Amino acid sequence: MHPDHPPAWTPPAELKGQPRQVRRILRLFRPYRGRLAIVGLLVGASSLVSVATPFLLKEILDVALPQGRTGLLSLLALGMILSAVLTSVFGVLQTLISTTVGQRVMHDLRTAVYGRLQRMSLAFFTRTRTGEVQSRIANDIGGMQATVTSTATSLVSNLTSVVATVVAMIALDWRLTVVSLVLLPVFVWISRRVGNERKRITTQRQKQMAAMAATVTESLSVSGILLGRTMGRSDSLTASFAEESERLVDLEVRSNMAGRWRMAVVTIVMAAMPAVIYWAAGIALQVGGPEVSLGTLVAFVSLQQGLFRPAVGLLSTGVQIQTSLALFQRIFEYLDLPIDITERERPVRLDRIKGEVRFENVSFHYDHGSGPVLDGIDITVPAGSSLAIVGPTGAGKSTLGYLVPRLYDVTGGRVTLDGVDVRDLDFDTLARAVGVVSQETYLFHASVADNLRFAKPDATDEELQAAARAAQIHDHIAALPDGYDTVVGERGHRFSGGEKQRLAIARTILRDPPVLILDEATSALDTRTEAAVQKAIDTLSANRTTLTIAHRLSTVRNADRIVVLDRGRVVEQGTHEELMDLDGRYAALVRRDARMEPAHRTGAPGRRAEPAN
Predict the structure, then answer these.
(1) What is the spatial distance between Cα 393 and Cα 372, in angstroms, rounded to a whole number?
(2) Rounded to whole angstroms, how far apart are CA atoms 156 and 610?
(3) Is the predicted pLDDT of residue 10 greater than 50, yes or no?
(4) Percent of the chain having pLDDT more than 70?
(5) Could you read off the pLDDT of 231-284 as tens digits, one per residue?
(6) Secondary structure letter of residue 559 according to DSSP
(7) pTM of the prediction?
(8) Tell me, what's the pLDDT at 298?
(9) Rounded distance, CA 210 to CA 131, Å?
(10) How far is the C-alpha of 4 from the C-alpha of 366, rounded, in Å?
(11) Which of 104, 181, 321, 574 is 20 to 30 A (C-alpha) from 303?
(12) Mapping DSSP to helix (H, G, I), strand (E, B) and coil, where does residue 435 land?
């Protein structure tokens, strides 16, 4: 674990004002405006064709049937059939195009969020739960699928249908149209209230889903299962998960039932409107009002019934948009995260890297309200030499090492590589120049070969084997039933600590960086395993600039130079012999280390010893 823990990360404040957020959502569709224009044309054509059907029906009832005009009747009936066919074909085409556009937008969002997170500093991930990050990408973006794939098309389609239908109704009889639409403002007000309520509940639901995802990620990993069972906490973890799930059940029910009764009233009223139309026409006839023909009345009711579906759909779409704003807001929070570590507009690229590293008056703190983790560090590491960084826990050793590959950026002074500030180098140069082997070795759930090729995708089998031999791990891999095709398991738990370390070293050997950062790479290993790993490290370190962050001092006695850190400052530096003669902090640490060595030789608990190859 990293000894210098920064404060917990808190997301930025919510976006101010829905109009701004809506405009930002619309910009997501801008690259696909050509396809959306085609969808708009299909929607318009479909709406016009569907509105024509009631007028054909009116002509059948008022002209073709009363006058016995069989030819006209056949032509009008054929027109109604053709209208249905064209409406269906247009509907299929618009669904295909709109779904494709929606999925591309979701792909763009997922990629943008993932790319943004890849550019965040290490500090962000030490302050954010992994499950929370996964939930934003999976649950939040996944929850927007219906919105981005169908809502836009549904909105345009329903709006076009409503407008075209209302115009047709006015053309038939404006008085009946007024009766039909008198309650429409009330319906709009109800849908807005329901939408706001669902947006609020959706925000709570997504936060709860993120909390559940974080719990699952942490407790159902290999490490989480081991911890839970060895601590006898499996039942309590299950009970805790059940409580989280129970809260989610309540939120899901509230989300689905929010405004359901109010929307049901809207549905009932709109479904009852045909009866109201017939009643109004009958009353008007009884009191001597204008007579409405049977064809007009049937056509009007047909239009009014046709208005019912898009009108309800339009209100429902408004509710969905309100709900989806909560999901978009959570995604935009991640897209708006400030990137601490960025590349210059015109970065420096080094083709040949010697490997000289300098820390020039370096200071570092995690935020402006906290004290310095490092203060006034001045160290020069000549190319090809070795520097050991030692000191008590929390002294800032790992932080100092992580400044070289820009896992963090200095807050004062500068770190240079071959005389160039690392902040001025392009990312590719820095990645080629600096390799890191840490105590916390990470292996993917993939084969040994795939894990090694992560450092060099085009590496040949011969190169893999040569790197593994140099790391003292080839014989062990070759003895496995599937050899280099053996799947290492989640986080490499099929291998012991020493084996994982040597795989990590082999991976770094393939990368062949001129500068090497070794972050307590052997501190958790027993002596026999350490001997094998140390031999691999010696091979890796040869002819490279090496910065070794050491907890166990026996591994750094041969370093060209040793620096002792305490509370973020250099308190001593020199060779092993010089520091022992000084009889200061370093000498005290060596004596403490010597007292602890007998216990260490018995082997680290929970790790099996393995013979050196």
Answers:
(1) 15
(2) 68
(3) no
(4) 71
(5) 566 677 777 777 777 777 777 777 666 656 666 666 666 666 677 777 777 776
(6) -
(7) 0.63
(8) 72
(9) 6
(10) 9
(11) 321
(12) strand
Q: Any idea what DSSP says for residue 3? A: S
Residue 181 has what DSSP assignment?
H
Under DSSP, the state recorded for 15 is P
Query: Any idea how long the chain is?
Result: 613
Q: How far is residue 59's CA from residue 71's CA, in Å, rounded to a whole number?
A: 13
Beta-bridged to residue 357, according to DSSP, are 381, 417
Looking at this protein, which amino acid is placed at residue 578? E
DSSP SS3 for 245: helix
Which residues touch 213 (CB under 8 Å, ≥6 apart)?
131, 132, 134, 135, 138, 139
Residue 344: C-alpha distances to residues 43, 120, 349, 610 (Å): 47, 15, 11, 47
**Helix-then-strand count for the chain, H and E:** 24, 10
Helix (H) or strand (E) holding 116: helix 70-118
Pairing state of beta strands 545-549 and 569-574? unpaired
Cross-strand pairs, 536: none
Inter-CA distances, 286 with 225, 278, 483, 558, Å: 80, 12, 94, 111
Instruction: Please name the residue ranges forming H helices in 287-348.
Output: 294-335
For residue 257, give both structure tokens.
Answer: 């039932």
| CB neighbours of residue 344 within 10 Å | 11
Give the residue among 105, 106, 109, 112 at the shortest CA–CA distance from 30. Answer: 105
3-state helix, strand, coil in the chain (%, to 5): 65, 10, 25
Token readout for 120 is 């965040």
Is the pLDDT at 226 greater than 60? The verdict is no
Residue with tokens 């140390």: 534
User: Phi and psi at residue 434, in whole multiples of 5°?
Assistant: -120, 125
Nearest to 507 by CA among 433, 443, 429: 443
- Decide: 502 and 532 in contact? Cβ < 8 Å: yes
CA distance 259 to 267: 12
Q: By C-alpha distance, which of 311, 285, 336, 59 is closest to 181?
A: 311
DSSP code of residue 444? -
